[in-house]
Design brief:
Blueprint: H1 5-16, H2 19-27, E1 33-37, E2 41-48, E3 51-56, H3 58-70, H4 86-96, E4 101-110, E5 113-120
Antiparallel strand pairs: 1-2, 2-3, 3-5, 4-5
Length: 123
C-alpha cells in the first residue's frame, strides 16, 4: 500500500533542489526566533555564527501581499533590497542583538528561504 510513496519521493527530491539538504545541515540544530513585520507578516529566523536563515510561510506571505497592495499608497518609501527577506534579517538584528550589527551579504536559497551574513561592531 505504501510502495507508491517511494516513486513520489524519488521524483520530489531532485525538484526540491539541494538547498533543503543545505538548510537542514546548517540550521537543523538551531532554534528559530519569530519576527513580525507590518501587515501581520510572520517569519522564523535561525542564527548560526555570523549567518541568518530567514524562513517565510506561504499563507502569511499571501495574506501580507494583499495587505501591502492595499497600503501601497500609504508606504511610498519602501526600500527595494537585493535579496528577498532582507528587511526581516535587519529587524531580527535590531531586536535580538544588543550591539550594532549590519548585513554584509545575502542570497535567496528558495522561494521561502534566504540566507544572510552579518557583522557586528565589537563591544
Amino acid at each position: 500500500m505504501k510502495t507508491y510513496l517511494l516513486p513520489l519521493l524519488i521524483i520530489a527530491l531532485p525538484l526540491s533542489g539541494c538547498s533543503a539538504a543545505y538548510i537542514m545541515g546548517e540550521y537543523g540544530q538551531s532554534s528559530g526566533h519569530e519576527v513580525r513585520l507590518s501587515c501581520r507578516r510572520a517569519y522564523r529566523v535561525y542564527e548560526k555564527a555570523d549567518k541568518l536563515l530567514v524562513e517565510a510561510f506561504s499563507a502569511s506571505e499571501a495574506a501580507a501581499a494583499a495587505c501591502l497592495v492595499l497600503q501601497a499608497d500609504k508606504e511610498l518609501d519602501q526600500i527595494e533590497h537585493p535579496v528577498r527577506y532582507w528587511d526581516v534579517a535587519e529587524a531580527y538584528l535590531k531586536n535580538m542583538k544588543n550591539q550594532r550589527c549590519a548585513i554584509s551579504g545575502g542570497r535567496q536559497l528558495e522561494l521561502l528561504h534566504s540566507e544572510f551574513s552579518f557583522a557586528c561592531l565589537p563591544r
